[in-house]
């Protein structure tokens, strides 16, 4: 996967690649944010990888940055992989993969709502869990509720 992304997208597309032993030896890579959309499209459509199923995506607050972790499955080979994409805390933004994997739609909305990551190109990015007038993003580590009783 790393060799493919470096050859087909950009030599610097992959920041890190590891085998996550704690998660069933899951191949896990970190892709640079600016190359994410091209990498996602290639992983979805390339005949060898054919990551046709986006099982899940989750937002993570790492205190120094925010990131989204995508979990893929190739339904033909049953091969699984995870991809991390980092973004900064001040203006967090990652390209939406909803046009590539429609199941990302609600997951991206959830991450937007709870962590404040903007998914550029999302067809309907709005709050999904919190009321529209809610202030802040409650899963961020720097979140301070307006009412300490809540």
Write the layout of secondary structure elements.
Layout: H1 2-8, E1 14-20, E2 26-31, H2 36-45, E3 53-61, E4 66-73, E5 80-87, E6 93-95, H3 104-115, E7 118-120
Parallel strand pairs: 2-5, 6-7
Antiparallel strand pairs: 1-2, 3-4, 4-5
Structure overview:
- The protein has 150 residues and is an alpha/beta fold.
- The chain has helices at 2-8, 36-45, 104-115, and strands at residues 14-20, 26-31, 53-61, 66-73, 80-87, 93-95, 118-120.
- The strands form 2 sheets. A 5-stranded mixed beta sheet has the order 1-2-5-4-3, covered by helices on one side.
- A hairpin with a 5-residue loop joins strand 1 (14-20) and strand 2.
- The longest helix has 12 residues, at 104-115.
- The chain is globular and about 50 Å long.
In N-to-C order, the SSE pattern is: HEEHEEEEHE
Task: Specify the number of helices.
Answer: 3
* Average pLDDT taken over every residue: 95
> Could you tell me the radius of gyration in angstroms?
16 Å
What percent strand?
25-35%
